[in-house]
Amino acid sequence: MNKKYGMFNPMFRVAGDWEMWCRAVEGGAKLLKIPGVYCLYYFNPEGLSTDRSRWNNILIERDIVYKKYSDLWKDL
């Protein structure tokens, strides 16, 4: 996938994975949701996307990605 749609954008410290998936979908990738639980998630209170001291940066990155790719989910 990375060869076709590119790597993580280094501009994003928090929203890099979301931006990469949006870019892939915009480029024609098809994603499939498989029902069920297939992994565990650890909520890291000091993680890049959960540390409240970084909240302003989180919101800025979220808004950039949302505005750039909002046409992908306008009909949902």
Please characterize this protein's 3D structure:
The protein has 76 residues and is mainly alpha-helical. The protein has one domain (2-73). The chain is 39% helix and 0% strand. The protein has three helices and no strands. It has helices at 2-5, 16-26, 55-69. The longest helix is centred in the last third of the chain and has 15 residues, at 55-69. It is globular and about 35 Å long.
Number of domains: 1
Tell me the radius of gyration. Answer: 14 Å
Shape: globular
The percentage helix is 25-40%
* Mean pLDDT over all positions: 87
Number of strands: 0
How would a crystallographer describe the biggest sheet? none
Terminus-to-terminus distance: 25 Å
Output the helix-strand order: HHH
Q: Structural class, please? A: mainly alpha
Spans of at least 5 consecutive residues whose pLDDT stays below 50 are none
Strand percent estimate: under 5%
Number of helices: 3
Q: How is the topology of this model organized?
A:
Elements: H1 2-5, H2 16-26, H3 55-69
Quick overview:
39% of the residues lie in helices and 0% in strands. The protein is mostly helical and 76 residues long.
Give structural attributes.
mainly alpha
